[in-house]
Design goal:
five-stranded antiparallel sheet; 7 helices; 234 residues; 7 strands; alpha+beta
Length: 234
């Protein structure tokens, strides 16, 4: 189907961006470097630096080491704990929702792209497929943006976390800055947002078969695609 294939190249590139963005967004929650705390002078945090993610808080230590780790002490941050700040709780929930919605968006994009390049589909079906993909990917980007920006603003404002004694961390750091976890998440969210905009901006081009007739009544079976006609020239 030469007509649809020639008008969907931008959406193919957008699908690649969405896949990359979703992968980066999926990596971000697993990173512990969302907030980097400077805690000098501690006898337990011997490295002087602690990392606070949305699921764990860790630091290197020669005095305490978690089971299964060589030189790092970690404690999990649970959603239901009273000390868990709202921005971290939101990150645990919204990042997971973002991954699920982004996965659905990428799956819809693959299916819509298959219809555009190889399948039998009306023009309106392909248009709605691309628009649905764009909406899902944009929603996934928005869901991840909220906790990322919220945690970034907490770092800029130097907000503290009242960790319990078992975390071995002070009530407040001397200073803190945003870590690579937030950066990776923001890059992934931006890529998904750009991808969603490209998908939503899809407009079918002009085709001689569509000028005089109804678009929805035209089916494309792929017989005019040069890839399917190569055997005729052999």
């Amino acid at each position: 189907m030469t007509y649809l294939a020639h008008t969907a190249h931008a959406q193919f590139a957008a699908l690649c961006l969405a896949l990359i963005g979703w992968t980066l967004t999926a990596m971000a929650p697993g990173l512990i470097q969302w907030r980097v705390w400077e805690v000098p002078g501690s006898k337990v945090v011997t490295s002087g630096v602690a990392w606070v993610g949305i699921w764990r808080a860790c630091f290197n230590s020669h005095a305490l080491v978690s089971e299964g780790l060589r030189s790092m002490f970690c404690r999990s941050i649970r959603l239901t704990e009273s000390f868990t700040p709202p921005e971290i709780a939101a990150g645990q929930v919204l990042m997971l929702l973002s991954l699920l919605v982004g996965l659905a968006g990428n799956a819809a994009g693959v299916y819509a792209m298959r219809m555009a390049y190889f399948g039998k589909a009306k023009v309106s079906a392909v248009c709605w497929g691309f628009i649905s993909t764009g909406v899902l990917v944009l929603l996934a980007a928005l869901l991840s943006f909220v906790p990322l920006i919220w945690n970034l603003s907490s770092v800029v404002a130097n907000r503290t976390i009242d960790f319990p004694e078992e975390f071995k961390l002070p009530k407040a750091p001397r200073a803190q800055h945003a870590g690579c976890g937030i950066a990776v998440g923001l890059v992934g969210s931006v890529l998904m947002a750009l991808s969603g905009l490209v998908f939503c901006s899809y407009r079918p081009g002009r085709d001689p078969r569509l000028r005089a007739g109804n678009r929805d009544e035209v089916g494309f079976d792929g017989t005019d695609n040069p890839a399917f006609q190569s055997h005729e020239r052999l």
